Amino acid sequence: MGLRFFNTLHRAKEPFEPLEPGRVRMYTCGPTVYNFAHIGNFRAYIFEDLLRRYLKFRGYDVFHIMNLTDVEDKLIRAHRETGEPLKSIAARYIKAFFEDIDTLGLERAEAYPAATDHIPEMVAMIKTLRDKGHTYEDSDGSIYFRLSSFPGYGRLSQMDLSRLQHGASGRVKTDEYDLEDARDFALWKAWDETDGEVFWETELGKGRPGWHIECSAMSMKYLGERFDIHCGGVDNIFPHHENEIAQSECATGKPFVKYWLHCAHLVVEGRKMSKSLGNFFTLRDLLEKGLNPLAIRWTLIATHYRQQSNFSFEAVDAAEQALRRVGDFRIRLGEVNGPGADLADRCAACEQAFAEALDDDLNISGGLGAVFDFIRDVNKMIDAGEVGEDGARNALALLDRLNAVTGVFAPPTEDAVPKHVMDRVLARQQARRNRDFAQADALRDALLAEGWVIEDTPDGPRVKRA
Ligand code: AMP
Ligand code: ZN
Hints:
- The protein is α/β, with parallel strands linked by helices.
- 46% of the residues lie in helices and 16% in strands.
- The chain has helices at 39-57, 73-82, 86-103, 119-131, 161-167, 211-223, 237-252, 283-288, 293-301, 313-335, 344-359, 364-383, 389-406, 419-433, 437-449, and strands at residues 4-7, 12-15, 23-28, 61-66, 135-137, 143-145, 171-172, 184-190, 200-202, 205-209, 227-233, 257-263, 266-268, 309-311, 452-457, 460-465.
- The chain is globular, with a radius of gyration of 26 Å.
């Protein structure tokens, strides 16, 4: 049936046909760098990573832009409360963001433009909108987008326009607001004292851009006036993406984005993540608890992106077990020798089932299911002594190809040693330092019983699967 995605714009699955054959231009809304990203944000970024990797697997040349929002209401509040310069707050969290995406194995986008490096592009776009009659100015010099000047407003979020026409008097200067509250929104915010040192002197006066114009101006700069895919979490649909469409289409007179893809939210233990419930986690919080980043990646990727995903510690344990099955399977394949089945048909069937599932709007559960069926079947064949060296090589190459899409079928590394195992290794070293050899041997035997061997090397002990 070919590759198809659920397009929020039409609330339907549609065949994917990029504007330019063979090439995909995509934009994903990135972090507001006023704090560490939380695992809900990473659910969105991992869904986008899967999308990008799968498009590449399907042979597309992908050009992907993710913005960094380094001027925005929440950042300015942090600046006001601490007195720390905006740039320095942003630099700290941008650094943390890149560390976190590396920890979770996200591929890098082609570029990460920062909003404050693109003020001239935003000013130019606001001037175009002004020249075309889509804006008006407040008495304080702020510039607003006039919703009533764009008949297409509300298409993405399926908003009731009659309500908008009657109830939408007034305007809103904050960047985030509710569906109940569709109003003319700020493109340019005139400086006031709460902004402190945050302002730019431009042809539009002294002030700063609104959040929405940032993504319109930067996406068009890097991807052109029209491009293929725009992503974010469902909370971005309104007002952010609705406003992006209004600004962009009014500025260019052309349809803006062909496919809009949005992921549902991550909840924690069945509840919305919030600081007051004590279930609000950054990636760093989870690493401190000793969780394996790969198991976190698995947990965040394994639910279909349009379904709400429930993060729980049991789910991470289950992911850890799934990773162990993959790791054990790779080890067994590495031990196969001699002649036997080459598994060519079995590998092709698995790859096809995986691709058919992911073609269907990134059905990851179907894709992972196909891989586990394969592992189960091939394990049985290994038990029966039927698999040959060629077969093992083909199976490992298949896992590598599927790992390029998912990032969860990699060969086990020392990092993947579970924390409780590492704890025992460290306890054994301590016992040896204390010359308590009985205790050290007991720990070594306990590890062996669990399938881990310790090798003492000149660089210290190394732990491997038995
Ligand atoms: P923000 O920094 O708030 O603009 O969010 C960055 C990205 O994370 C956006 O695409 C949001 O839609 C997404 N996001 C925020 N919270 C969650 C959540 N709980 N689950 C999934 N995605 C989220
Ligand atoms: Zn955006």
